[in-house]
Amino acid sequence: MERSGVPVDDHAQGYDIRREYEVQHRSGSAPGDPDTRWLALLMHAAFFLLLGASLTRFLTRHPGEARTPWIIALSITLAVLYLLGPVFGSRPTPRPTPRATIWLGVLVAVWTVLVVLAPSFAWCAVPLFYTGLRILPPRAALALVTVLTAFVVAAQLRLAGGFDAYLVLVPPAVAAVATAVFLHMRRQAARQAELIEDLLRTRRELAATERRAGTLAERQRLSMEIHDSLAQGLSSQQMLLQAADRTWHSDPDTAHRHILTATGIAERSLAEARRFVHDLAPADLADGGGLEAALRTLATRETAQAEGGLTVRVHVEGAAEGTAYGDLPDRARSALLRIAQGALANVTEHAGATTATLTLTHLDDRVVLDIADDGHGFTPPDEESRPAPGARGVRGHGLPAMRARVRQLGGTLTVESAPGEGTVVSATVPLPPPQTPNTPPPHTPYPPPEAPS
Length: 453
Prior knowledge:
With 453 residues, the chain is α+β, with helices and mostly antiparallel strands. Helix content is 61%, strand content 8%. The chain contains twelve helices and five strands. It has a five-stranded mixed beta sheet. Helix 11 (330-351) links the parallel strand 1 and strand 2. It is elongated and about 130 Å long. Residues 1-32, 386-396 and 439-453 have low confidence and may be disordered.
């Protein structure tokens, strides 16, 4: 529906909702959340800082030992494995992937060997807490944190050379606090994700309600307009013609007046019908700027909505005035604009193009609109065949609807495309034939009253 008091752009609303939904929280983590990003960067920096500090401490205190090459090699291996985390899917997902689980297992195993050889590497476990809590389900993550904490306690006792209650209690306390904070943040993020999902669902329901309300309001407006103008006019014409029929022979002058009055009512009703057609035309044509201005407005809007992914240009060849044929009817302008809208919707949704060009060509006896893009292209279906649902480059009823619009105007629609070569949709609409001043009217609606015999 184009007009219902307040315009409702379903495509734009659906695009906004989909774009917002794609950046929502997932499995307790929001990729677009600045706090989550900063926490991840902080943990990554802490891991490499602790790893470098541990390696420096070992090399300073144990120079020239036989295990030194192994410590260096394991440190490098641990750093490389940690850097390869995104490759193996270390990002949070509803369920950990096998690759991410194996990567985490190998990472912990290398760290464990490193701690056994050099206990000073034990505090690298703190960033590993965070990594395990992000990837694994809560129970598995808690089990991993417990195991890592036990290794930290054992390593610290080994460095101390004996039992120390401080070293036994502090690492579990640190691990417990870190785990509690992370789980709390995870629950908060999950609640926020639910709230956002509820908000989006409410917005979709509200948009659907507004569309239904707008449709009903427009139907009611049209019904009242038709009742108060066309229906009343037709009713008056019917009564006048019936009265003229009754007085056709007995009072020809009165019958003639009735017919003239009915003719005037018919003229006014025709003007009202044309106003309805104008009101129901596409909104871009309602400003009176013509088809060229409407196409430029459409190109600007589609380019802005694509946000840099698609550039739409408009070229006009020839002049709309000065031909021997008549001007392009409003119905044809509306149809060509609708075809351009549908073709650009296909380009945006299916073609993967970076550039689309609308070319409007005014010839002596016809107008041609070409929509060309540099996208993937496709194999055009036969004109009589129905496209398969979901076929690339073809909307469910896009091309058949375009052909139906052009056929109603006596024109033709052609589609030229091939995989990898882009697509050109060409709509040709003939102009109405020229009229001469001496052309008689096609018919006389009512015969003149006969003279009484």
